[in-house]
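Problem 12. The chain below contains 387 residues. Write out its predicted structure in token notation.
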Amino acid sequence: EIERDQFQVNMFKPVLLSVVFGAAGTSAIRPAHSWDTLGTMAFFHSCNESGPFSDRALDTITKFPLVTIEKGQGFHDTDCTKYGADFSPCAEQKIIQQCADVKKRNSSIATVFYYNAVLSWYFYHMDIVMQKRPDWQLNDSKTHKAVLAPGDRTFNPPKRGMLVFDHAVPALRDYWKSVCINATATGFVDGCFSDSSQPNTHGTQGHLNAADEAAFEAGKVQTMSELTQFFGGTPGKPYAGSDGLLIGKTVTQEGINAVQIEMFKAGEAEILELMQGAKQGYLVQAHAAVTTTPSKAGCNDLEAMTDVIAAFLIGAGDDSYFGSGLWISPGIEDIEQRWCPELFERPIGAPLADAVKTGQVYHRAFATGTNVSFDVSTNKGTINWSG
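Solution.
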């Protein structure tokens, strides 16, 4: 069993950011990626609200080369001492421990720590810190009171809303970055998922005048830029050469070189967004929208999975990954239906060229002889496997 005291780092005080950004400031690894099969370019992103994933669940999760643990990990488990924490709440430690359990199975898997760039979620210990630091809280430009913003109802946000990190404040930026940096310092985390890091999320613009909004958004970009540099990357440039990763939300946002398209569907708009990210050289995760059949039913509906995977393969680049499933896993069936051997373990090979659109149909050929087509008039995909 992994020793809990291996990651008794203080995640809740700002670190002195003496790291030379762009230098080897972290032992984080970049995720493995190859065109051999869909499974070698796939990712897992979810959490288990009841506590650590079971061994059976990990049997599937650790097939993926890239794993993100969502914010709700262990939400219903109130005993933080299990995770080596003498404080509560402790979502940070729960996420790190789950990453550690993944690494115990396979240390070559790249693991990602979820947190939000805007919302101070109440089950993170970060929120205890924020409650004590009014100078770090985003204030309404007119009332000068703390902004309380709404969150994803899937995760039971308080009706009154949650505090917002004010990235216009340098000390807050340092603190927010330190949580990610300290997570990677455990050796069990290779990067961070920066949710809501794109402009104008959770209604913040409605609370700010033009000057305050500009300062807040510029601060957010600076925060993301410095963490991207911490992982050896250059904001707005190709992901190649990075160690570890900071995942943003849109291919057009500033400060990042990796992104998740979290509502990816079998459609031309999503293909074009993926193509844009690939053309920019970004690491791009395409996650089947949680409202669609591929994420709800997974391998139980191979036709729907084929459609969205065909769309992915039409637009994918050298650092593109496909994933599906719900943000909160309801059980082992949900975990296991994310990995379909019929689709994830068959040969693909590197693309021979970019996709070509003829009429309403995209076509793309791959080195093993696998061929993919996608009809944008019907949003149906076809994969003719080579083996």
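Discussion. The mean pLDDT is 93. Students who got a different answer should revisit the alignment rule from Section 12.3.
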